[in-house]
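FORM 7B: Structural annotation worksheet

SECTION A. Query
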Amino acid sequence: MSLLAYWSANLVFDILKVYMPCILTVAVIFIFDMGYESSWATILVYPIGVVPFAYAFSFIFKEESLAQTVMLFSNVVAGSIGGMAVFIIRFVPTTMKEGDFLGKILKIFPNYTISNSIIYDSSKDIFNSTRTFAQIADPTINDATLEPWEANNVGGDLIALGIHFAFGLLVIFIVEMGPWNNMRSGGSVKSKNVDEDVDDDVKAEEERVNKLKPADALIRINNLRKVYRTGFRKATVAIENTSLAVDKGECFALLGVNGAGKTTTFKSLTKDVIPTSGEVSVMGQSVIDNFNKARQYIGYCPQFDTIFDALTVKEHLEFQAIVKGIPVNMREEMCKRSIESLNLGEYTDKLA
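SECTION B. Predicted structure
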């Protein structure tokens, strides 16, 4: 699956999923004639802005649970508490300008645009008269208007959601494509001279791999090095000049103590991380420079979350066949053959 197909599918699915409660909310507004003349537009545009924003926001975190918690908390604070706080501040003549400024800042959170537009629809008349009165004492206060599509009203919320959409897509592009790869690689940290500590068989393997061309081995890793950087902390060298080659017919196991770099090595093979230096190839294709071709030869079983609880054994195989692009007319036979070869016949239709 290409990156374009992966992100497009996720984007469309998540936006449609968010649209379900949004459409129901708009339907309730019109069915019960609640008088929200313009905020319905913000609710309908909201999914397009919030989904890419959530994607971009998630890249800050390493753990999914932490990302969800912070995202939920920030949405509650900005959307509910922030919306009410701005509403109150903007009603007091002496703090109206500060409220206007705070409202612009909070638009960096998509949830605030919804609360702000709903508050505007429900209180625009009294808000307009209050601001007009306040301008008598302080002419520098921005003019109020009853036109909902003005930039200071719901129109500004719609513009903010459009910016969220464009910004989220831009972040995804930067993270997944070349501009971010140099930063993901960890940069350069001076290599240690480890020749004195290397066993003879390891040296022999390094020399053998160095003489091989990428196409000479099914898997070839040459002088692989990975440095992790986290903020301003001291860089951590996870892999130091590792070389190995796996030939046809071999069953290769990578052993080592915790922290030896096993996981990072496999993540480098699947481009989950970008090596700081070195060469990584699968079936002669560079994982770093030509991953779209290299990935076609990779079958990978992660350490966690390897199966879906709601799918049966057969459904798992069918799902993987679809992901790998196996033609429809071949899937049934391949799934059947895999089940028989693994002696899973009695579990074919059981949930994982």
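SECTION C. Observations
The radius of gyration is 28 Å. The longest helix spans residues 3-31.

SECTION D. Sign-off
Analyst initials: ____
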